């Protein structure tokens, strides 16, 4: 396990990958204002938005940087531009608990772990979304695998020591989790992040469940991320 930093010297950076998120980015970044006031750094990695996302994000972040399109590439670019000893990766449609910075720092020091994630709740129309979130959280505890929706956070040295997110178009969070498990078991914080259920609402709950579980199963069986990304787009 990589060495940890002292409690009061840890600084947290939040990296937000973004692509055409004008409808959500102000809400997401605005909610981070109290954390920024406590010294948390917020970096937005824009993958070439063609709407007003970058202009809306600029006054609400420490930096908005251009990055190659693709979530893994954007998160790696944002991490490279950050300065924190711990880096949290936050989707543009996800909200953190108000005390997220203190929860992360305290847990990483207490448990001597290199990485972790939050429990998640999914905000949307279907009551099934709460069941889905509960299953996601339980599966993560059992497998030690986190998803991007759960706001993964990782010690800087461990992240860069493992090469960051693998530069693949899908399942980059699962692959990084696998690698991070060689450093330590994850911290599974019971406090919840809230993520948008827009994908589930738009595509249908059962259809999305079937798609995501099928893709995940195929990945575990050895299908390439490129192949799965084509299936996901179709």
From TrEMBL:
Gene Ontology MF terms: glycosyltransferase activity
Residues annotated as domain Glycosyltransferase 2-like: 13-133
Intracellular or extracellular location(s): Cell membrane
Chief place of localization: membrane
Keyword entries, A-Z: Cell membrane, Glycosyltransferase, Membrane, Transferase
Pfam families in UniProt: Glycos_transf_2
InterPro entries: Glyco_trans_2-like (IPR001173), Nucleotide-diphossugar_trans (IPR029044), Trfase_2_rSAM/seldom_assoc (IPR026461)
GO cellular component assignments: plasma membrane
Keyword rRNA-binding: no
PANTHER family cross-referenced by the UniProt entry: GLYCOSYLTRANSFERASE, GLYCOSYLTRANSFERASE 2-LIKE DOMAIN-CONTAINING PROTEIN
NCBIfam families membership: glyco_like_mftF (TIGR04283)
Record-given protein name: Glycosyl transferase
Lineage, opening ranks: Bacteria, Pseudomonadati, Pseudomonadota, Betaproteobacteria, Burkholderiales
């Amino acid at each position: 396990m990589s060495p940890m930093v002292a409690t009061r010297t840890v600084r947290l950076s939040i990296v937000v990958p973004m692509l055409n998120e004008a409808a959500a980015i102000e809400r997401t970044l605005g909610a981070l204002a109290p954390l920024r006031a406590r010294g948390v750094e917020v970096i937005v990695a824009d993958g070439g938005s063609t709407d007003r996302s970058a202009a809306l994000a600029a006054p609400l972040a420490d930096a908005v940087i251009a990055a190659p399109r693709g979530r893994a590439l954007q998160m790696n670019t944002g991490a490279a531009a950050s300065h924190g000893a711990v880096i949290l990766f936050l989707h543009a449609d996800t909200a953190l608990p108000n005390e997220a910075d203190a929860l992360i720092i305290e847990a990483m020091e207490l448990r001597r772990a290199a990485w972790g994630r939050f429990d998640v709740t999914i905000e949307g129309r279907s009551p099934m979304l709460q069941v889905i979130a509960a299953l996601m959280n339980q599966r993560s505890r059992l497998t030690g695998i986190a998803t991007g929706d759960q706001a993964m956070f990782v010690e800087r040295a461990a992240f860069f020591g493992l090469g960051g997110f693998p530069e693949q178009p899908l399942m980059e969070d699962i692959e990084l989790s696998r690698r991070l498990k060689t450093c330590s078991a994850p911290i599974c914080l019971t406090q919840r992040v809230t993520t948008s259920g827009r994908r589930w609402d738009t595509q249908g709950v059962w259809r999305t469940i079937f798609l995501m579980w099928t893709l995940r199963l195929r990945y575990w069986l050895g299908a390439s991320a490129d192949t799965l990304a084509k299936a996901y787009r179709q």
